[in-house]
Amino acid sequence: xxxxxNHLSLIAVFLLxxxxxxxxxxxxxxxxxxGERVSDACGAFSFKSVPGCAYTLFTDHxxxxxxxxxxxxxxxxxxxxxxxxxxxxxxxxxxxxxxVGAFSGSWRAGGYMKMVHTPHPAKPQIRATHPYTVFNFYAxxxxxxxxxFFGLGNDTTxxxxxxxxxxxxxxxxxxxxxxFEWAAIRWLNLALLGEINGRFIxxxxxxxxxxxxxxxxxxxxxxxxxxxxxxxxQLGEGLRIKPAIxxxxxxxxxxxxxxxxxxxxx
Length: 266
Description:
The protein is an alpha+beta fold. It contains 4 helices and 11 strands; from the N terminus they run H-H-H-E-E-E-E-E-E-E-H-E-E-E-E. The chain is globular, with a radius of gyration of 27 Å.
């Protein structure tokens, strides 16, 4: 009797483990389905299948190829991206992580999160528009290997051309808060805007080119901030209105920005 019970227990544990394994997580399920879509689009090579395969590789989710132009003179970047979203009763949340690099050695990488507040009031009101509060959180790093500097002011010449490299890291958050509580101004579709960012910049010379590196032509007096680049905080606040007149949708925005550094800098 005891032996039979032990065998039944082992079978039950095995079945429970198999059942748990069979229950895919949402992410694992999406990755499996994406793999099936890529296999269908790109499995059998032919010239007719190339557009469909490329479309799948560049636009599918949660993984896809990322591509985009870098700033001028820094080439075209290729890399990868991961996107994911999750909805709850009161929030729509999405994440985006991507990284691209160019043959010039320049690259960009970042992570971004968006949260859209979608409350369910006890007495829903019918409106022509659906204003939602939106929060954005982000962190990005970009490294550019080739930038031109000709000096300050309007009297610069080609003779003052120099090269430099720059890296910048940005960490911050922004918010959009629609103001729809006042019926008298609801037609304006007024929204309050706010942001806070930390920016950290590093400047470096660019050597081995026919054009001289920046530090060989300029000093802190002629290129302020050349030897030291303190990080700084950047705040922003503003208003946006999007009134609709018939089929005409207007969009106006006013914004203030402030910059704060820990020491005197330019």
